[in-house]
Amino acid sequence: MPVKFNHSVIYHILIDRFAGYSSDEWHKPYFLGGNIRGIIERFGYLKDLGVSVLWLSPFYKTTAYHGYHVTDYLAMEPRFGSKQDLSELITLSHSNDMKIIADFVPNHCSREHPIFQEALSSPHSRYRDWFFFQKWPHKYLRFHDVDALPKLNLTNPETAGHIIDAAKDWLALGLDGFRLDHVVGLPRSFLERFEAETEREFPASLLIGEAWLSHIPFHLLKTVNIKQKYLRWFLGIRQEEVQREYNDLLDGVLDFRFRELVISHIAQVDHHHDAQTRLDELLQKHYAHYPSGFFLPTFLDNHDLNRFLFECKNDREKLKKAVELQMGIAQPAIIYYGTEVGLSNEQAVDINVPYSDLQARRTMPWDNQDPELLEFFKDCIRRRNERFA
Known about the structure:
TIM Barrel; alpha/beta; two-stranded antiparallel ribbon; seven-stranded parallel β-sheet; 14 helices; globular; 389 residues
């Protein structure tokens, strides 16, 4: 991926909730009908906004509207569209000087994946070692405590090969790279192989990791693969240190630390000089921890966290202040769909409340937008593009 990616503006799309949906019942964890065709039909909006990279949520065959419960890594989820639809979107993007990256989910799959079902069918199944059975067939390692998401054994060369081959198939279709989900759960040996094989066959492809650990309970440490995890858990796991573990493995990681700083020094305080000065100092110190050329895409909100407007109690001036800061930094800047038109929560996202993340996954309000805020975003992106041209 060209160094110019450092100055890109990435637009993060949750496919089911962005465009083409037939139902507006966003508070239910069901497929609402958003699809790739809908993105194609709204492409003019994206071009007019000025973004340079599209980031798509998982579109692989799945049991869940958000796409993270994969049942086939090699096939499209029909409710999202066909490979032809995806190919058309890729071609359209490239012809308009945009890149496309996609979420890829190598740490775990759906319990309904045929391979996991086969592993459950017999203690002698060839696929039993594709997972971490502690007591076959009912006790196995999972993503967090979710029974529906068995953790893949990526130290098994056959399992790793299947996942990496699937990723290469999608790159061959024209994708420009991946946002790798939950990289803290992935063995270092797997990431080294993934990076080496994709780099060899697709040298311009991009790998950005989601290196995020937030208040993980002790009993789940067995499912993650960060260094000295037990000692660090007792001492207190710091987000900064987690992110830095991947500066020799990936092209970059999503910058959760940036969001933490912006929330605490803009969203949760009144405007005053001391807070801005302190934020500038902390950001300068933050970036000093990383080698040049390592990407730290900034973001204010995403599908797992409160919308920034909710964090700042719908104070649009605070949102504008945060966006101006974000757009002035020489790192990729991510806009989560809807933030640019005033989308917010009704209630807080709470990891202990089932489906509360739906608050951050509302449908794109095409008929109820804040036009002044949208124009502000367009102007910020235009000025950023001119500055880093």
